[in-house]
Write a structure and sequence with these properties.
- The chain is an alpha+beta fold.
- The strands form four sheets. Strands 15-12-14-13-17-18-16 form a seven-stranded antiparallel β-sheet. The protein has a five-stranded antiparallel β-sheet with strand order 5-6-10-8-9.
- The two termini are about 45 Å apart.
Length: about 550
């Protein structure tokens, strides 16, 4: 065994001199400093004054930042990919779990919370983005945010883009490994559909690229979640073409302006629009969706739907399409704005168009939040839509919205088994989010119950064989693995088939091949197959 350096030993002694009962795994740190001699300045333990900041700076969901929330034994912010294999090997030796954090936007906090002793690998320092505009590719470290990726692309070209999500502070690693959709997905598919290479550290500490990891593992990490298979270091992505000018609009229609009828008709036409047009809807209170309180003396609550659109073309063509397919919407030239694609990213986030550098800012607005997702196969009748509105008159509906994203286009052309993400043939995805502030923390259960009531209400109208959900909108209500010991195929299938349908079986086979002892595990990680059973023995 190698002797640790003096600085590493000194650092370890300083940690444990603070408290004889310090909740830190001394053996893990000793192992780490033996295997990696230049990492001590990147290690944070509960005895370090910077530990709270290291833990909470990118922890988005305040539901998982309470004093009672389990905390990691160690947080490590590696600066180079070579520093990650020793972390994995030492965690294995000391029976500690790994949580890998890219941007901290996990809806259930699973990138920084565990019920058993664990280490956080925070990828924030591995955020380099290298764009090759001529080849139309980019390498993005998984610690980069979508905002950083978009900004670096726009630096090199105004006619290249990447089809990923809306929020610029979301981390590349979690977003792409879980699928990743945004304004361009009807034209180019999900983010994961446009990954052409990747680098990952496996359970044995090997750094692998697409060729050395093999096509099965490469398939799994493009929509199956990266945390089940290793620590993803970076993705190489295929950039896509966009015109010099795109057209956007954001138009709010209240109930009095026939919002219900417009939503109902939207279901029949939006999935059939040409690929260049993405017309999506946010439903909720007018005050929440527009930032303008339109109620009269605070007594009357205005509800409505914001119709938002990105069109990959000029306004004249958009007006022609809308007049032909959706004339009752009444779109006029004054509603529309032409801009560059990178400006459209700013537009949908409410960022001034002249301030693209804001995309480099990682600061997040923390909140309490719960999300649930669904997929719709047949249009919801008008009465079904009318029943949704009543939830938004309730107190919990004040800061909540429901999101309608039309499928069709490129999504319908990609086979369900092409990546782990299977929900390709849906008419649209239907998700609802509820937010609340710290002063409402004591009412958390009320907000969670409100979310569950909407979910139950939607049951007759959404896909139910099985009830389908989106991995990046993680929902532990769907089911979880056992915190310790083995999780059966039948138990994991309860949540696994909701996210992955039949692709869940292939994910289990990949997991069994690359991590048979289930080191990389969490509440909803893919479990390996117990060798005593075939896939269907336990069903």
């Amino acid at each position: 065994m190698k002797t640790p350096t003096i600085s590493a030993l000194t650092f370890t002694l300083l940690i444990f001199s603070c408290s004889s009962s310090a909740n830190v795994d001394e053996d893990f740190l000793q192992c780490l400093f033996e295997k990696s001699h230049n990492i001590s300045h990147l290690v944070y333990t509960p005895q370090n004054s910077l530990f709270p900041s290291a833990l909470l700076t990118t922890a988005w969901n305040l539901r998982y930042t309470t004093p009672s929330t389990p905390k990691p034994q160690v947080i490590i912010n590696p600066e180079h990919e070579s520093q990650i294999p020793p972390i994995i090997l030492c965690a294995r030796e000391n029976d500690m779990e790994i949580r890998t954090r890219s941007g901290g936007h996990d809806f259930e906090g699973r990138s920084f919370v565990s019920e058993v002793p664990f280490v956080i690998i925070d990828m924030i320092n591995l955020s380099q983005v290298t764009v090759d505009a001529e080849a139309k590719t980019a390498w993005a470290g998984t610690g980069a945010t979508l905002g950083i990726l978009y900004y670096r692309i726009a630096e090199k070209s105004q006619t290249l883009a990447f089809p990923a999500g809306f929020c610029p502070t979301v981390g590349v690693g979690g977003h792409i490994s879980g699928g990743g959709f945004g304004t361009l997905f009807r034209k180019y598919g999900f983010a994961a559909d446009n990954v052409i290479d990747a680098r990952i550290v496996d359970v044995n500490g090997r750094i692998l690229d697409r060729k050395s990891m093999g096509e099965d593992l490469f398939w799994a990490i493009r929509g199956g979640g990266g945390d089940s298979f290793g620590v993803i270091l970076s993705f190489k992505v295929q950039l896509v073409d966009v015109p010099e000018k795109v057209t956007v609009f954001n138009i709010h229609k209240t109930l009095q302006q026939n919002a219900t009828q417009l939503i109902h008709h939207w279901q029949y036409i939006a999935p059939k629009f040409e690929k260049d047009l993405n017309l999506f809807i946010f439903l909720g209170r007018t005050s929440f969706l527009t930032g303008v309180n339109s109620s009269q003396d605070g007594r009357n609550i205005s509800l409505g739907a914001s119709f938002r659109s990105l069109f990959l073309g000029r306004v004249d063509r958009l007006l022609s399409l809308m007049q032909e397919r959706f004339p009752e919407f009444g779109l006029v030239r004054e509603d529309c704005t032409e801009m560059s694609w990178i400006q459209s990213v700013l537009y949908f986030e409410g960022i001034p168009l002249e301030s693209p550098e804001i995309l480099l800012n990682r600061t997040i607005t923390k909140t309490y939040v719960k999300v649930k997702s669904n997929y719709v196969q047949s249009p919801i009748p008008s009465k079904g839509i009318e029943g949704i509105w009543r939830f938004y008159y309730e107190k919990e509906g004040e800061t909540s919205d429901m999101l309608f994203y039309p499928y069709g286009g490129r999504m319908a052309e990609i086979p369900e088994s092409e990546t782990p993400y299977p929900h390709r043939k849906s008419l649209y995805s239907l998700s609802h989010l509820v937010f609340w502030e710290e002063e409402e923390a004591q009412n958390t259960e009320k907000y969670l119950n409100w979310s569950s009531r909407i979910y139950n209400y939607l049951t007759p109208y959404v896909e139910n064989s099985p009830r389908a959900s989106y991995l990046n909108y993680k929902d532990l209500d769907l089911g979880v693995n056992n915190p310790t010991g083995k999780t059966s195929y039948a138990q994991a299938s309860v949540w696994g088939r909701k996210y992955f349908k039949n692709n869940f079986d292939r994910l289990i086979r990949v997991k069994t091949d690359v991590d048979p002892k289930n080191f990389f595990r969490s509440e909803q990680s893919i479990p390996p197959l117990d060798s005593r059973f075939t896939y269907f023995d336990e069903v």
